[in-house]
Amino acid sequence: QVQLVESGGGLVQAGDSLRLSCAASGRTFSRYSMGWFRQAPGKERELIGAITWSGNTYYEPSVKGRFTISRDIAKNTVYLQMNSLKPEDTAVYYCAVRNSDFASSRESDYNYWGQGTQVTVSS
Q1: b or e along 48-63 (b: 16 or more beta carbons within 10 Å of the residue's beta carbon)?
Q2: What is the DSSP string of the chain?
Q3: How far apart are CA 89 and CA 39, in angstroms?
Q4: From CA 8, how far away is CA 19, in angstroms rounded?
Q5: Within a 10 A sphere around the Cβ of 38, how many other Cβ atoms?
Q6: pLDDT at residue 84, rounded to an integer
Q7: Measured between alpha carbons, how far is 112 from 87 in angstroms, rounded to an integer?
Q8: End-to-end CA distance of the chain
Q9: Cβ distance 90 to 62 under 8 Å?
Q10: What is the pLDDT of residues 7-25, one digit of tens each?
C-alpha cells in the first residue's frame, strides 16, 4: 500500500499563490509518475498536470504557465505550485501515483490516490 497525503490547500484571493504538497509513504515503486487532478463543484475530476519518472511535466492548457509541478525524490514528495490563481481554479485537488514511467490522463491508470485538499479562490 502507498499512502498519499496532500496538504497546502486553503482560501485565497484571485491572483494569490498556493503550493500543494503530496507526500508518499509506505510501499514505494521503483519507477513512478505522479498526477495532479482536480474536481470542481458539479464537474468531473480532471487531470491538470503530471510529472513522469524521468522528470518530464505535462500541464492542461488552462493551468499551463501558472502552475508548476516539481518533486523531491529524497522526500517522496511532489509539489504543485499554483500562481495567479483564478476563481475557476476552485476545486478539490488530488494527487495520484502510477506505477509507470509515463503519465496518463485516465484516472483508472493510477494506483493510489490522496484524500484531496480544498482550494478556494475568491474574486
Answers
A1: bbbbbbeeeebbbeeb
A2: -EEEEEE--EEEETT--EEEEEEEEES--SS-EEEEEEE-TTS--EEEEEE-TTS-EEE-TTTBTTEEEEEEGGGTEEEEEE-S--GGG-EEEEEEEESSSS--S-GGG-SEE---EEEEEE-
A3: 9
A4: 6
A5: 22
A6: 98
A7: 28
A8: 40
A9: no
A10: 999 999 999 999 999 999 8
C-alpha cell at 64: 499551463
Q: What letter represents residue 75's amino acid?
A: K
Quickly tell me which residue has 502510477 as its cell.
98
Q: Residue 110 corresponds to which amino acid?
A: Y
Strands 10-13 and 117-122: parallel
Q: What is the pLDDT of residue 109?
A: 95
- The residue count for the chain: 123
Cell 492542461 sits on residue: 60
Place of cell 485537488: 93
Better pLDDT: 89 or 76: 89
Backbone angles phi, psi at 76, to 5 degrees: 50, 45
